[in-house]
Amino acid sequence: MWHYATKGLGTKDMVILPYKDRLQLFTKYLQQLIMESLGKEKDRSGAIVNQGISVYGNKGATDQHAYVQQLREGVDNFFVTFIEVLHDRQSTSLQVENGITSGDYLSAFLQGTRDALTQSGRESITITIEKLDARSLGALIALYERSVGLYAELINVNAYHQPGVEAGKKMATGVISLQQTVFAHLRTNAGIPCSVDDLSSVCNADHETIFHILEHARANEDSEIKRTEGTGPFDSRYSFGR
């Protein structure tokens, strides 16, 4: 169904709407699982493919009001996955009105939202489980893990490595190294204000990264970096000293 909805090219986003408060974090887990596994620049033969499926969403009923308006009437660039849990709770459900429980309303919200989207020609998938317990949650996780692996095979990408994540970590290490160089220069010249331009020349690094390093540092007292205001945000000067 993912391959059908996205034409195997990631042409549509995946919106996850679980109608159970205890599944609120499941959407965030799926975002990490699917986007990290399928978001790849190259396929297994080395060809540039820029694959992936963007995932967003939250629990239904309450949070659906944040974006269902656009889902029904806005740009048609998504498909929805509804997750339905038939069993409401361990104890008796709250009576909202005579003969109608809070669980009945939750079920009605799911059905009504799905029907409204269908009327607008918006595609959806529904996964129904009897009740939410350790076994069914494990089954949902296993289902999505295997779906990711199968989809990756269909589009010929390796779902099990994350070079993009590693690139971010390596660049973060570079920023820390640059911060140490900037701080060392300011300490050596304690009390002498330096501009971003000055530090960029000394450290042979780009202005923007140095600017963000300094702004973060001066906002935290333990860094002992002070800012002297200039005529604009990029004309300020920075120095080391209590």
What does this 3D model show about the protein?
By secondary structure, the chain is of the alpha/beta class. The protein has two domains: 2-161, Glucose-6-phosphate isomerase like protein, domain 1 (Rossmann fold, 3-Layer(aba) Sandwich); 164-240, Arc Repressor Mutant, subunit A (Orthogonal Bundle), CATH 1.10.10.10. The chain is 46% helix and 19% strand. The chain has helices spanning 2-6, 24-38, 68-73, 102-119, 134-155, 163-188, 196-203, 207-218, and strands at residues 13-18, 40-42, 48-51, 55-57, 78-85, 95-97, 100-101, 124-129, 194-195, 225-228, 237-240. The strands form four sheets. The chain has a four-stranded parallel beta sheet with strand order 4-1-5-8, sandwiched between helices. β10 and β11 form a beta hairpin. The model has no long low-confidence stretch (mean pLDDT 91).
